[in-house]
Amino acid sequence: MRSLSGPTIAALGASTVPLVQLILLGFGTPIALNTSNWDFVWSGTTYKGAGGLGSVTTIEDSPGEIKGLNFTLSGLDSSYIALALDSVDVVQGTPITVRTAILDSTYAIVDAPVEWSGKLDTMSIIEDGETCSISVTAESSAVDLLRGSPLTYSDADQQALHAGDLAFQYVISQATTPVIWPSKEWLTFASVH
Question: Where are the alpha helices (DSSP H) in the chain?
Answer without folding.
Answer: 6-12, 78-85, 88-91, 155-161, 171-175, 184-192
